[in-house]
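#random but structural
TW: two for the price of one
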Amino acid sequence: MHTEARGAFEQGGQPILGYGAVVTGTPMVKSVGLVVALFAVVITFSSDPPLGSRQQRRAIDSDRAYSGLTVSGLRAPDAAASLLPTASVSPAIEAETSRRTKEDSGGSPAAQADGRSPITLAFAGDTSFHNSLHLLDPLASAQRTLSLPDFTVVNLETAIAPPTVGLPPVSKEFLFRSNPESVDALTEAGIDAVTMANNHALDYGAEALQYGLGALREAGVHTIGAGTGPEEAYEPLVVPVGDWSIGIAAFSRVPCDWSWAGENIRPQVAWACPAFLDKADAVVAQLVDEVDLAVVMVHGGTEGQLCPDAVMTGLNRRWASAGVGLVVNSHPHVVQGVTSIDETIVIQSTGNFAFPPSSGLTANSAVFFATLSEQGLLVSVEPFVSEGGVLSDGSSVRRASILSQIDQYSSGWRVLSDGRAVQDPSHDGLCGSNS
């Protein structure tokens, strides 16, 4: 994915120090900064097993009807709070439930006597250290938040290799290369895995991609969506997290203009292009049957647009039909809303994270949490501002405006003033009920 940038980091059309983006476009989105605050999405369950695998999931009972501001007979704020495990209000608030605390104490303080302990996953958006961003320590302000969950994933949208490794295989307007020292920034921030199923993984060819994959794996960072060939690229990540098995598959839907002949000439990346959907479907179907929570991450959509396009809406429904519990999308460079399709929760776009040179609307950033317990799945958001790709907490006003943005562009969910969200089928949002 690309963001428009030219100026301080470029001279004569070439990036300084050899690590950067060759950028020749004009600004796409320069909107007034909107959004930031704490946001949560809750989907309710009774004694049913948590969503994730086809065998474990059951249809939501017909008597779980929503009327006005009530959820299962509770007022909306109480309904949201009632689903949160004891001592696990939100990973963004409850530092004591961090993975480090759990490891030191030998178990989660939120453990339930009659079931498995809750776990928290985290997902953040487009991340790249081109334009020598790594020198500015862009993840420092988010380090505490990224370290709280049990497992944290970002979309790494860059080649990681020295300037002497790899050449662009095709002519592109935007090319991203990051210094290998960027791997240290990821590990120090507490990031456990990266998806590289995106349109910049191959910016400098297979050689640079393999260099970056090797550096990441050597540092202990899991990689998803890319590899030496299609088998490795399409292989999902399956990891035990606490008492749960979690599976993550990652695919890129952009670009697909090269794929219409049906031949995969870019086999180092997992694709969700129409020509290769059968392969993606098979991966997802097997994953759903193997794990407690199946997650699909797709890189696609329309840049600068706050609503999902028809292609992404179709893919979301495809994964929901397959039994996926959580869909997490990226690529539009803006944070979009949250919706649900039957029992599947969809984060429409995680937006930019540490991604230069974000500004205005594209600087509205967030970490999305998914907390899984015997009671169900809770999704919450800790907002950040990513001016120039360097993360900061942002002002309370901006955080509140981010909360408002997510509420307006969510469908079937309302975001409350304290950042939690409850299901509200009457709320179509600005994107409409078909999103």
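TW: number two ↓
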Amino acid sequence: MSGPPTRRCGAWARVLDDAWERMIELHGPEEATNANRTRLAARIVWLAQQGERDERTLSDAAAVYLCALIAAGKLRRDTQEAVGFQAKPFRQDMGNVYDAQALAAMEEGLALCREALPDPVSSTVMSFLSRTILDHAAQGERNAVRLCSHALDALRSRR
């Protein structure tokens, strides 16, 4: 995937589309969410930054990664249902109450941030991202992609 930026973008788009279609074949259209597409795109970029240039290898690796994340999420949900798990609000140091939806959005938002950043990510940066996500969740934000976006924007403006 060398060459001018437009050729690289076209190749990345082909990789994304191929991996996306395979994920949908395996997991169904209910997993065709914006969050999963963002995860997939972030993984493709990360793999390319690591030096991988072969489109098929990029597509295979990204599809396996996303499918593993989806399967792990399903396994977690199935396990929680099997043991009768009931998510209950809990208190953070700041005294805010976060319900199950907020917790899931915060967890996914932080994971998206982590995927978007090159390795290694320092504990200071992860702590900053976590605090920013907590602040926005306390203000009522429940969209993981927006939580991630707010945190990464705050990190960029801090540097």
